[in-house]
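dude i think i finally got it to work??
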Amino acid sequence: MRRSAFQLIGLAVFLIAAESANALRPKIEGEISGVELCPQVVCGAAIFTGTFQGEVGNDSTPGFFWASIQHEPLPVDPNQPAVVLGGKWSLSTFRGQFRGSVINGFITNNEDNTFTVTLTLQLKRGGKGQVLAEVVLDHNDFPPTAEGELFQPE
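look at this
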């Protein structure tokens, strides 16, 4: 009887810990659309802001993002990458506020004055884990625009 009670308590502790871990790593998935406020050559980092429409957890929510990204000079030749060196990011939604650092990534020249930006973002506030970003940066208009998606690896 006593052994069963300890097993039950162990199971309860495990389930509570698993639920807490899930709460610390909400699923963040959705589309972002924004503009580049300032290029790296002027501000020391490329600074972006815009909107988010997607899901946090399993709940739909709108939001706003900003990102400050440091990178090697943009590649001039087609299909050539520049390394993302670091930065910071923030996402504010009705389902919570999230922020962290830019761990790494690449900016690849698409040959038509657009660039594919792939980023790995570390979630430091509002949860734990990583968020991936895949964005197309369009330098054909002023101000440059950025559109893409945020998602978490499985």
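Helices lie at 2-24, 40-43.
im so relieved honestly
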